[in-house]
Amino acid sequence: MLIYLLRHGQTTGDLEDRFGGDYDDHLSDEGKQQAQNLSDKLINSGIQVLFCSPRIRAQETATYINSKLNVPIETIGDFRERNHYGILTGMVKSEAKEKYPELVALLNDTKNTIDGGEDYEVFKKRVDVAWSNILNQNYDTIAIITHGGPIRHIFRDILKQGEIKIDDCAYSIIEVKKGSNPTVISLNGIFIQ
Residue 179: which pLDDT band, with cuts at 50, 70 and 90? Predict the structure, then answer.
């Protein structure tokens, strides 16, 4: 099986410099263009189904991609972004630094959980379960449209590739063969650090 692991496009929250995570924002105009450009790149990919996070930005990205592919879209709740920011979710970062400097400082460690946030181990487990369920699907080529957090976890903990930097609408192609570890075939806007 080939898995196209895709990140959504730029969001309105990015432009407003908000703490994202569980914040359910839309694609910006640039994000829409990024998704359109990505759809052009995937026309001949052979993708048979899109598995997508329920967040608006991922769903909108899937809609652009599917305008060229015309395949089923299946929403997978466990591919949503981690609610790392808890009570800071959706706040403009400068405002959050003023009101909650101690909470903002805690965010420097990914494994910290702040008030209202999702525990890192719980996040990892749900992404692991979603990934395992995908591997049991009967398709030759699929796409997963998700977020930076799940993609970083997949690269770090499942693919054992280490830390990555990831652009908007970046994607990787991963080959999964029964009985062997997944292999990263291609990186497009994803940089292993």
Answer: confident
pLDDT in tens, 55-113: 999 999 999 999 999 999 999 999 999 999 999 999 999 999 999 999 999 999 988 99
Range 76-79, long-range pairs (CB < 8 A, 24+ positions): 76/51, 76/52, 76/130, 76/133, 76/134, 76/144, 77/53, 78/126, 78/127, 78/129, 78/130, 79/51, 79/52, 79/53, 79/127, 79/130, 79/144, 79/145, 79/146, 79/147, 79/150
Catalytic residue among 8, 84, 147, 153: 8
Is 26 marked active-site?
Answer: no
pTM: 0.96
Catalytic residue among 60, 81, 84, 118: 81
Please give the domain boundaries of the chain with CATH numbers for all domains.
2-84+124-192 (3.40.50.1240)
Q: Answer yes or no: 84 catalytic.
A: no
